[in-house]
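Please produce the structure of this protein holding adenosine-5'-triphosphate.
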Amino acid sequence: MTAIEVNGLRKSHRGFEAVKGVSFEVGEGQIFALLGRNGAGKTTTIEVLAGFQRADGGTVRVLGLDPYADRTALRRRTGIMLQEAGFFPDLTVAQTVDTWRGLIAAPRPRDEALELAGLAGKRGTKVRQLSGGEKRRLDLALALLGRPDVLFLDEPTTGMDPEARRATWGVVRDLAGQGTTILLTTHYLEEAQRLASTMAIMDAGEVVAAGDMAETLAAQAGRVAFRMPAHVHPADLPLPVTLEGGTAVCRAEDPDLAAQTLLTWAAERGLRLAGLEVRTATLEDLFLESAR
Ligand SMILES: Nc1ncnc2c1ncn2[C@@H]1O[C@H](COP(=O)(O)OP(=O)(O)OP(=O)(O)O)[C@@H](O)[C@H]1O
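Below is the modeled complex.
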């Protein structure tokens, strides 16, 4: 079942077209990463999907409903974590969660939400005393209170330390495993690559690459890099390379095979390929190539 459908979405802010005909789909229980540089239009897209803004063009459906027209019905079934949360700084973490619980039908117990977000030890701490990463965790706890079927996470791990980030990935995976559909944005491409099964890269309001994460990356060229041996010219090598400083970089569909070819060539000449690195394409490679 498709949980989120976006077809030809257009949205302008005071005459500036931030989203220019974007289309993608997210299946139920999938983790989908919406990627792109600053200002690409990701938050605008999420705000339309969450029913905060009306689309100027195209169609958008979340759980089969129009997020703007049916926002009351959808609000009960969606959770959202935006980039800037409006907390009351003098409330404690527990008071903040309790206040939000009062606004939600059949909310999750407070301690369960805090436990899930890794904030159980901070119940009595005032919001203004939380670190940036802890505030993101509080945001996550609030987004989870309504046991949403669809969760929108706008840069959920910004400011978190590596351990907290990994813990949040665990929470996101568990939720998806239980059937929650998750759309997230992030500037941490490794995070997107590890978490999401599908993705779209936006640039200047348009989708420039999209699809299944594993398939899309497998179709990208991999990379073999090594320090250029002394007195060797790139034209002497058996495969084309580009030079990045003193490092020769060879892009190849099958990087293992390319590395073998290069190593055999080097061995026959008694040369060493120092600092040899062989890897398949990463999301960062794809991102840098797509979002130019
Ligand atoms: N309310 C608004 N009024 C005017 N322009 C806006 C408004 N909201 C967003 N924009 C502009 O629309 C464009 C897209 O913004 P958006 O916040 O959707 O990008 P983003 O991809 O989420 O970026 P980031 O990664 O920096 O969060 C930007 O150029 C932004 O300046």
